[in-house]
């Protein structure tokens, strides 16, 4: 789900080499280089920008941007990749502590540095695949790249990278499970909070949850609230308004640890003293039945149609508050495949998805979302 | 909802002075301490999606295009712009709004440095004659309203709460990420809606960065850049905590930085070039024999502005920042510095520039702090 980006990713920033060893990244690199060979690419540019859309370089480098800047990995068909990121040179040591790539270049002009690297590798007149470009690149930077690559053949290679990223390795799934445990902890924390008979505000609730999630080792956290009694209700960042007793509250929590995200949505009822989770048995059963439709070999389109059929019109429409039934999740909080009737992808083992459902329970809509692995 | 009358009136006046038929104020949804968010300032709304834009005609008609579509209700509540358009395809909505608001001729673009190629190319294809207009918004923001000054002071209160938590948490056995968690919590409870916190701990720090698993040990120096954000306004304090009795070199080094800080802020007042701050700090350090350390990678900058309507463009305050300081600006002055005897030390805070000097915003003293070993 799209969320408000913080000004800085300020949580625990480490690279646990036991959980994600260098060999994992070498394997990713080799598989991408094989795909490049098959596609006739001499080089691949993996570009990302901001805290929500930096997945391509993170996937290959394990580097994440902390401020909303850009990063780029140049991957030649043969040889070692180069990582560059917007930032001061003094950030190189911190970057090198979380990436396996030896050639790390902080810079303030990604286009210029990219052209330098491509020239060093004699690739400026070759066939270059693009992932994240020009989709995310500022106008002037893209024009500078185009000028410098006038002799190159540029090919859209985003699908090539998306396909590989979509299938998670065992280690990636393990980290997503770890992130899921942090998300569960956050949701459990809400149930221990007092409503103070209407004195608890959304922002106070968020402060408590965020603290616990940070202490559990989260690298990043996003928390969104939807109050269905509001007109035009939709998920939004917490504000200073108090939660009234008797009110229903939808809570979205996404957290990442060591690059990997998990997301969940739960419904809470503000009692006179505490927040109570609204997750009745029949609703859980329906949700499990919906998730059960997501099987390897099934097309995303068929899954979405089945989910649509399994929900009433009002239930389906209620998913508008969060942008739909879900999407892939991994090194970014929202990635391919998008669960929509127009998605051409087929589900495969190792895909990690966030799946959401709106379900009627006792004359009210209850929202529920989970991160699942296919 | 923020009142937008003054901003709109000024925008219309400036557009007419420049012969612009309209103004686009763009945001890619990011909030960056080093780059102003013109849309957040102008529209009073922090967008979530990747492409968002306020559209203003020279006749004063306005529209606000936001992503995702379902965030439109929040935009309507926060922004003074009534015509909010939630967009599945922001390019289509943006070009439609330009057409519907009957904008003709050259169009100013603020925030265009972040606009991705496909969006800008679509505007070009639609025949929109774009001219850079970041300075137009900076000009509007140069004059601070009482509400904006009050927001700066409110944010400073959160920064003090953050430092209190930093000082309390910087103790033996506590991990860096746990310290940051407590600082963030304190600042959220004090009203911050976002936070920028850098930290480092150890006997000899090299720079501040995101927190790691490292646990504070006896004799450590813990440094922090503590920056709460309230409604887009940043206020920063930089502090150093000695875990245990400070060594003589540390006490001496910090005294030097404090002296450089005091000398620099003594120069701060409206109309003084911002470069004087950097020159003064560098002068004190050079006189003490550290001239070669007055450049990267031993330091980054001697301070910076915060967001729209502060020291701009680029926000950094260095020897080349010759723009004059302006009354009402919030600026941070920080002689944060690597010294060979002690490592990197943090020292400094945010000031409010006034006609006759400056107003300290922080309640906490700018000194070397000590926690029990």
Taken in chain order, the helices and strands of chain B follow as HEHEEHEHEHEHHHEEEEHHEEEEEEE
**CATH architecture level-2 label of the largest domain in chain B:** Alpha-Beta Complex
Computed CA radius of gyration of chain A, to the nearest angstrom: 22 Å
Order of helices and strands of chain A: HEHEEHEHEHEHHHEEEEHHHEEEE
Name the biggest interface: A-B, 59 and 56 residues
CATH topology of the largest domain in chain A: Creatine Amidinohydrolase
Number of helices of chain A: 11
**Beta-strand content of chain B:** 15-25%
**CATH superfamily placement of the largest domain in chain B:** Creatinase/methionine aminopeptidase superfamily
Explain this structure.
The complex is a heterodimer of chains A (374) and B (373). Chain A has 374 residues and is α+β, with helices and mostly antiparallel strands. Chain A has helices spanning 22-39, 55-61, 92-96, 110-120, 139-148, 158-166, 170-192, 202-215, 281-291, 300-309, 313-318, and strands at 43-49, 70-76, 82-86, 103-107, 127-131, 153-156, 220-226, 248-257, 260-270, 275-277, 326-328, 335-338, 352-361, 364-373. In chain A, strands 4-3-2-1-5-6 form a six-stranded mixed β-sheet, sandwiched between helices. Chain A is globular. The two termini of chain A are 19 Å apart. Chain B folds into two domains: 5-141, 3-Layer(aba) Sandwich (Creatine Amidinohydrolase, Chain A, domain 1), CATH 3.40.350.10; 146-371, Creatine Amidinohydrolase (Alpha-Beta Complex). In chain B, strands 7, 8, 9, 10, 11, 12, 15, 16 and 17 form a nine-stranded mixed β-sheet that branches. A six-stranded mixed β-sheet of chain B has the order 4-3-2-1-5-6, with helices on both faces. The relative contact order of chain B is 0.12. In chain B, helix 1 (5-18) crosses helix 6 (134-141), helix 7 packs antiparallel against helix 8 (176-189) and helix 9 (248-265) runs antiparallel to helix 10 (275-287). Chain B is α+β, with helices and mostly antiparallel strands. The N and C termini of chain B lie far apart (49 Å). Chain B has helices at 5-18, 38-43, 72-78, 90-100, 117-125, 134-141, 146-169, 176-189, 248-265, 275-287, and strands at 22-27, 52-57, 62-66, 84-86, 106-110, 129-132, 194-202, 221-230, 233-234, 237-243, 303-305, 330-333, 337-339, 343-345, 348-353, 358-360, 368-371. At the A-B interface, helix 5 and helix 8 of A face helix 3, helix 5, helix 8 and strand 7 of B.
């Amino acid at each position: 789900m799209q969320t408000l980006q913080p000004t800085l990713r300020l949580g625990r920033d480490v690279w646990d080499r036991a959980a994600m060893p260098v060999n994992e990244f070498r394997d990713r690199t080799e598989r991408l280089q094989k795909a490049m060979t098959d596609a006739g690419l001499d080089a691949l540019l993996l570009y990302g920008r901001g805290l929500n859309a930096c997945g391509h370089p993170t996937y290959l480098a394990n580097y994440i941007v902390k401020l909303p800047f850009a990063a780029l990995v140049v991957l030649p068909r043969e040889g070692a990749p180069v990582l560059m990121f917007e930032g001061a040179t003094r950030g190189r040591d911190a970057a090198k502590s979380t990436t396996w790539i030896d050639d790390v270049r902080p810079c303030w002009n990604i286009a210029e540095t990219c052209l330098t690297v491509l020239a060093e590798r004699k690739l400026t007149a070759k066939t270059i695949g693009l992932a994240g470009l020009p989709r995310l690149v500022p106008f002037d930077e893209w024009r500078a790249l185009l000028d410098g690559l006038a002799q190159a053949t540029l090919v859209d290679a985003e699908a090539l990278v998306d396909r590989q990223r979509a299938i998670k390795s065992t280690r990636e799934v393990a980290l997503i499970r770890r992130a899921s445990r942090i998300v569960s902890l956050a949701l459990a924390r809400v149930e221990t909070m007092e409503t103070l008979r209407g004195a608890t505000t959304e922002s106070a609730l968020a402060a408590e949850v965020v603290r616990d999630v940070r202490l559990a080792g989260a690298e990043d956290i996003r928390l969104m609230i939807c109050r269905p009694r509001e007109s035009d209700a939709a998920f939004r960042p917490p504000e200073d308004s108090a939660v009234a007793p008797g009110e229903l509250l939808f809570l979205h929590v996404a957290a990442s640890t060591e690059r990997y995200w998990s997301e969940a949505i739960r419904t809470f009822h503000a009692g006179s003293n505490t927040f109570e989770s609204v997750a009745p048995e029949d609703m859980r059963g329906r949700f499990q039945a919906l998730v059960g439709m997501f099987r390897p070999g099934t097309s995303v389109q068929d899954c979405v149609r089945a989910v649509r059929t399994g929900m009433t019109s009002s239930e389906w429409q209620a998913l508008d508050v969060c942008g739909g039934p879900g999407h892939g999740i991994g090194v970014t909080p929202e990635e391919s495949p998008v669960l929509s009737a127009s998605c051409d992808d087929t589900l495969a083992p190792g895909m990690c998805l966030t799946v959401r459902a709106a379900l009627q329970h006792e004359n009210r809509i209850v929202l529920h979302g989970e991160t699942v692995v296919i | 909802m923020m009142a937008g009358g003054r901003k709109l009136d000024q925008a219309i006046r400036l557009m007419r002075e420049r012969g612009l038929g309209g103004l686009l104020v763009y945001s890619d949804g990011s909030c960056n301490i080093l780059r102003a968010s013109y849309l957040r300032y102008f529209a009073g709304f922090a967008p979530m999606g990747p492409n968002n834009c306020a559209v203003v005609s020279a006749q004063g008609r306005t529209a606000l295009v936001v992503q995702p579509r379902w965030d439109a209700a929040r935009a309507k509540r926060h922004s003074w712009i009534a015509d909010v358009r939630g967009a599945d395809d922001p390019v289509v909505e943006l070009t439609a709004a330009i057409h519907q608001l009957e904008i003709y001729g050259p169009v100013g673009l603020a925030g265009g440095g972040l606009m991705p190629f496909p969006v800008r190319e679509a505007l070009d294809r639609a025949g929109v004659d774009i001219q850079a207009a970041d300075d137009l918004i900076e000009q509007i923001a140069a004059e601070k309203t009482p509400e904006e000054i009050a927001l700066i002071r409110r944010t400073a209160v959160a920064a003090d709460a953050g430092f209190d938590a930093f000082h309390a948490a910087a103790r033996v056995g506590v991990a860096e990420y746990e310290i940051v968690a407590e600082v963030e919590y304190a600042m959220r409870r004090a009203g911050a809606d976002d936070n920028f916190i850098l930290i480092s701990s150890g006997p000899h720090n090299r720079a501040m960065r995101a927190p790691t698993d490292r646990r504070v040990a006896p004799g450590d120096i813990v440094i922090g850049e503590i920056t709460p954000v309230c409604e887009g306004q940043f206020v920063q304090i930089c502090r150093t905590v000695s875990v245990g009795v400070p060594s003589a070199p540390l006490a001496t080094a910090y005294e030097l930085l404090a002296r450089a800080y005091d000398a620099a802020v003594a120069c701060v007042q409206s109309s003084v070039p911002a470069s004087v701050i950097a020159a003064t700090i560098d002068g004190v350090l050079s006189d003490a024999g550290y001239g070669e350390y007055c450049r990267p990678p031993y330091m980054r900058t001697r301070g910076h502005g915060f967001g729209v309507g502060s020291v701009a463009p680029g926000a950094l305050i260095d020897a080349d920042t010759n723009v004059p300081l302006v009354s009402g600006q919030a600026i941070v002055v920080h002689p944060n510095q690597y010294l060979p005897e002690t490592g990197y030390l943090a020292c400094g805070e945010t000031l409010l520039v006034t006609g006759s000097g400056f107003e300290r915003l922080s309640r906490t003293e700018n000194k070397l702090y000590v926690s029990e070993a």
